Amino acid sequence: MTDLISGGTATPRVYKDYARPLWQRVLLTREGAVYAALILVIVVATLSVRNFGSPITMTYLLLDVTPILLIALPMTLVIITGEIDLSVASVVGLSSVVLGTLHQGGLPIEAAALVAIVVGALAGAFNGFLITVVGLPSLAVTIGTLALYRGLAVGLLGTTAVTDFTEFWTDLAKSKIGSTGVPTVMILFVLLLIVFAIVLHFTPFGRGIFAIGLSAEAAKFSGVHVERTKFILFVLTGTISALAGIYYTLRFGSARGDNATGLELSVIAAVLLGGVSIFGGRGALHGVIAGVLLIGVLGSALRLANVTSDVINIITGVLLVASVVSTSVLNWVRAKRTRPGEPRKTR
Amino acid sequence: MSVATAETTGSRVTAALGSFVKARETGILLALAIIVVVTTAKNPNFLFSNDGFRDLLLTPSILLLVAVGQAIVIITRNVDLSVGSVLGLTAYLTGRLFIDIPGIPIIAVFVAGLVFGGLLGLINGALVAFAKVPALVITLGTLYAYRGINVLWTGSDRINASDMPKPFLALGTQSILFIPVLTIIAVVVLIAAGWYMRNLRGGRELYAIGSDPDAANLYGLNVTRRVLVAFVVSGALAGLAGVLYAARYGTVNSQAGSGFELEAVGAAVIGGVAIFGGSGTVWGAAIGAYLLFTINRALPILGVQDFWQRAVVGVLIIGAIVLDRLLALRQSRKLVEARDTE
Amino acid sequence: MLFQKNKGRAGAFAALAVTVALVATGCAASDDGGDGGGSGGDSGNLAITFLPKNLGNAYFDTSDEGGKKAIEEFGGTYAEVGPAEASPDAQVSYINTLTQQGVGGIAVSANDPKAICDALNEARDAGVKVVTFDSDTDPECRDIFINQATSEGIAKIQVDLIAEQIGDEGEIAILSATANATNQNAWIELMKTELEANHPNITLVDTVYGDDDDQTSFDKTAALLQTHPELKGIVSPTTVGIAAAARYLQTSEFKGKVALTGLGTPNQMRDYVEDGTVTAFALWNPADLGFLAAYAAKALIEGDITGEAGDTFEAGELGEFTVEDDGVVLLGDPYTFNAENIGDFDF
Questions:
Q1: Average pLDDT over residues B64-74
Q2: pLDDT of residue C175
């Protein structure tokens, strides 16, 4: 076919001429970087920190990091839509207090846990209502609910704690699967992970989440129920936070109003580290898992090496800032160097 | 003619009065007054004892400084979550200066606190302005990092009251004409900030940037520089607050200032500073700071356990932003009507 | 160029994470203070770690120094770890880390009688010996408890002091530490009993909690004085609380009108005793407490005692001690400090 403009026949462009090899498309992504960092840190830690390689390390690590893992799942979805939820740690505290007070009042743990989960869902729904129906910015709302829910939690229990939990449940929270060092609660986490991954990456609802993050208006005009989706996500966040709160309470055997203070920072730091863009529209769950584990492994290794927790905090803070800034800087660099590419030489 | 001018002057006065009455700041000032009156009725010591009056004015002045800085940052459509950590670091620096450099003049310590806080704020501002990363993330990271540095530097030490010179500590409790010295410092800063924001071009540009950053950019405002300045000011004020903290409490450990960022944002939001930027005043943030603290003190006297204070703060913040939203909706509806009826 | 960007991004990020990890674990590993012998349970493993309620507390600084002196005397390895805030969950993390590190013994002052139990028992299962000092846990979770004096004695001396200072009648309030602390609650209960039995004209109007945090204690004192205008005395059975309260009183109009007593360290209280804000207060020697705890841990590790009633062991210059019922070892009696003798002490 003659090309009218150039007057001659031009070679038709073929996609595969421009495609990078598969291994690059899989490994050289943001998530790949986090995985690489994670593996590197594990290797270095095993070699240089005494006692790191023992199996109880992994057990304690996973036990410690489970609440963050759990909450990171819905938080990823929330951040992908461009919103944020700072109240998650307060919901953890609130559900912990609800569990404790009800159990102390005589309710069996199962029932108390159910009520706590409902409370979490309601808390999330309140967030969702304010954000989707009243139209308030999620940052402001969740700062307010962070104070409100934490205040309710502390108000209900004061600064006392409920520590009388049936051993069956506290043992279950810390039990391991058979003789591996993997805690039983990981089963719950993996199930949730599978559900979330399927929803996010393989359903229209999930595609809608990405669409909202990229452009809420365009998504709305494409038929995505923006408000309903966001509302559901906030309810999910509240529910999972309550679940994490129940686990946290049973694991430490103590329900306190100030449980998990500051947890939201760890969750958000891990999610952003894992490649989810704070602007919305981009991210993957497996990267987030790697991000959570990276922070967890670093913390565990440093603690074992008797590095104090403040240094761990400094590192987390710097990593968080560096990861987000590096993305921004590299985008800028790329923008400067963009020019139309030549077709790659095919082998 | 003269009737007409009298009328316009009169209507201008009414208009000014009207806007004063409807101003958000008046509303919360009224709320503050009501709370003080009710509590004093229950327990006259709240206001009328020497200590009570002094404490009411004194302790919130630290939060006032931080809230004013936070308001300036929020007006530009950013947020600064690291102020608590900056406060803690400067408070510790204050103590260390007194210990390591005996005989250092007090004014030098104040300057050091301001400069140090300003530097920490500069780091935040540079990352936000140049790397174009949302301030939420940056200041979240610096909140962690600065607090970690604070704990690392402090080790398991603390600064004790006996480490600091008596005249400095006296600043924390002295009063001039019944008004505590620290409050005077805070109010002077407040007046300066309020005047800058309202009357100087730099201040008005901050509002513009917060209202619509793209328009501000297209208009030719130096957005980067203004945002940088906003963060430096926020950091410097948090630094000053740290010095005042050391004077007031005398003992500084690694946890000083934890949680202040939440209170500062709360005070600003309650005081009418919209979280989306572009509106609100530092006066509102200052009154918000006083309101928060006074509620805290009033609750136990009114019979409510002070454990519920956090919840009250949360309700206030949510109430404030809902109110803002309703007012904004009403405003836009009125404007649309006005446009449609012309 | 797409290829450049992703590789650059991934590379930069991985490099950053690796550098951070290497630097952190590198300098930590070369500076490992205190992760002593191999596995716990080794009768020669004299690595003993002190875990106070929180760091940055003058009282614990002294007690841990005492422990350090003892440990260096008998050739063990000393370490001190602790949270910045006095919370039980934080202590659990540290106990877990110590278990992983395989220390020989832990000397802990508990923030909650039950919450750290599970972690302590896991440590004991791994062969670590557990000594509680200053603030106990439930007896099933530890091997020995070093009590500074009988709880009745500690309660009585504070009640006696305040009664003397306010003329045996009027309103008093208690400024405690955290609401869950075992020792605080034990003493407060005994104080109430003592007041009812022997001081009918004194009314206890309020108990507030300063959380062993200086600023909180300071503000709570201010609030107390405002809320109860008829208050004649404040008892603060915590060194952080009494120091903060004294500092507030010193510059308030209540100085000299409201009596203040409780448990304080001479160095912190010297100023206030000399200018009359405080007349007298009580304590014991925390250094001796730590010293004894370290020797008790040594005796347990070496198998000399098992914590049964009737066991005896040597504690260096403090002499010989006998274990009483429930695995309790008594240090001695509380001591009253006042203007005459406060110059003789330095801790």
A1: 94
A2: 93
| Nearest residue to B154 (alpha-carbon basis) of A300, C266, A314, C84 | C84
Nearest residue, CB atoms, A259 vs list C2, C24, C89: C89
Per-residue model confidence (pLDDT) at position B21: 60
- Higher-pLDDT residue of A70 and C45 is A70
For residues C50-75, b (16+ Cβ closer than 10 Å) or e, as one string?
Answer: bbbbbbbbbbbbbbbbbbbbbbeeee
> How many CB pairs below 8 A link A and C?
167
Share of chain B above pLDDT 70, in %: 94
- The pTM of the full predicted model, rounded to 2 decimals, is 0.83
Residues of B whose CB is below 8 A from A306: none
Residue C37 near residue C9 (C-beta atoms within 8 A)? no
Considering the domain boundaries, does residue C18 fall inside one? no
Select from B144, B311, B318 the Cβ nearest to the Cβ of A130: B318
Instruction: Please list, in sequence order, all residues whose beta carbon lies within 8 angstroms of the beta carbon of residue A59, skipping any fewer than 6 positions away.
Output: A176, A181, A182, A183
What total number of domains does chain C contain?
A: 2
C159 shares its domain with C114: no
Note whether B136 contacts A: Cβ–Cβ < 8 A: yes
CATH numeric code, B27-309: 1.10.3470
Which tens digit of pLDDT belongs to each residue from A143-188? 899 989 998 998 888 767 787 787 788 778 887 777 777 888 899 9
* CATH number of residue C62's parent domain: 3.40.50.2300
Q: What is the DSSP string of A130-179?
A: IIIIS---HHHHHHHHHHHHHHHHHHHHTT-EE----HHHHHHHH-BSTT
Do the Cβ atoms of A112 and A99 come closer than 8 Å? yes
pLDDT digits (tens, 9 = 90+) for C208-232: 888 888 888 888 888 888 888 889 9
Distance CA B338, CA B255 (A): 54
Nearest to C297 by CA among C54, C55, C62, C36: C36
| pLDDT above 60 for A343 | no
The residue of B43, B50, B51 whose CB has the most chain C CBs within 10 angstroms, and thus the best one to mutate to test that interface, is B51
CA distances from B28 to A323, B32, B97, B256 (A): 41, 6, 39, 28
Classify residue A223: in a domain, yes or no.
yes
Residues C80 and C158 in one domain: no
Domain count, chain A: 1
The complex's ipTM works out to 0.83
pLDDT in tens, C268-320: 888 888 888 888 998 888 888 999 999 999 988 888 888 888 888 888 888 88
Minimal CA separation from B331 to chain C, in Å = 42
